[in-house]
Amino acid sequence: MSQTSTTTRPAASRATASPSPAAAPRPHARRTAVLKALGYSALTVFALLYLFPFVIQVGTSFKTDPDATANPLNPIPSQFTTAAYQSLFQQDFPLWFGNSVVVAVFVTLGRVFFDSLAGYALARLRFRGRGAVTLAIVATMAVPGVVLLIPKFLIIKQFGIYDTYAGMVVPLLADAAGVFIMKNFFESVPVSLEEAAKLDGAGVFRTFWSVVLPIARPALITITIIAFQSSWNELPHFLVSRQSPETNTLTTGVAGLLTGALGSGNRYPLKLAAAVLMTIPVAAMFFVFQKRIISGSLEGAVKE
Predict the structure, then answer these.
(1) Which phi and psi angles does 214 have, rounded to 5°?
(2) Residue of 289, 142, 243, 124 lying closest to 190 (CA atoms)
(3) Domains of the chain
(4) What average pLDDT does range 93-97 have in this prediction?
(5) Which of 183, 296, 161, 303 is nearest to 241 (CA)?
(6) pTM of the prediction?
(7) Contacts of 302 (CB under 8 A, 6+ apart)
(8) How far apart are CA 187 and CA 165, in angstroms?
(9) Residues 4-33 pLDDT 10s
């Protein structure tokens, strides 16, 4: 009895003396933590490099002309002033801003509707020449926009809508990239959803509008952001579709302003103040829709 107990004690002591697996060092986990820290550090550096020009843009817009010329890379003004913004609003800047809003809103609504409609037709409807139409749309995406400026000008003049809002908006109401994006998205939607709607007596447009289009919310938000940003920053089309000062947008107005009397010299504060005001709507729209893009993508990922 005593011999058995004496033989089990050393084994128990050896078991308690051996280190537990949890206390053993894990070089793989340490290496992973180091790599993660280096990755986050690199991303932080790149983010700061990306944001630095925007910080300079905002800071320089509140500088004086001599200060901006002497210290172009210093974002902190030595003398804070809003003279550049006052000079902008003494011009027709509010008119240019209003024209840009009108054009961007109508172009965005038109592209969302017509791109989704055309994309659904190419994805679901069976008609002769559908492949040729799809190929033509893809080929149009490879054509530089500057090549189409003269044909656009001739067509706009022929239809009698030159120097009007119609001439500025109508040619931009649809684009090949938006149609292609919507077509690819609709092809990923299960056909069974549409078949159930057709059994209930819904037509093609009713099925598109009530069943398929609500599912396409992530793609629609993407098209909305792209359409608004491209129409807000559009310059070449507005140069060939209008002429009078009353139809100036922000891009054409600021371009003419910087080449006119106020554009003599560097005038960095004036130029960057205009750039700041032009950036605010696009940035605000992106931040408003950013969470919806992410949530919509997650909904699409878990949907069966």
Answers:
(1) -60, -30
(2) 124
(3) 30-90+260-304 (no CATH), 92-251 (1.10.3720.10)
(4) 90
(5) 161
(6) 0.77
(7) none
(8) 35
(9) 444 445 444 444 445 555 545 577 788 888
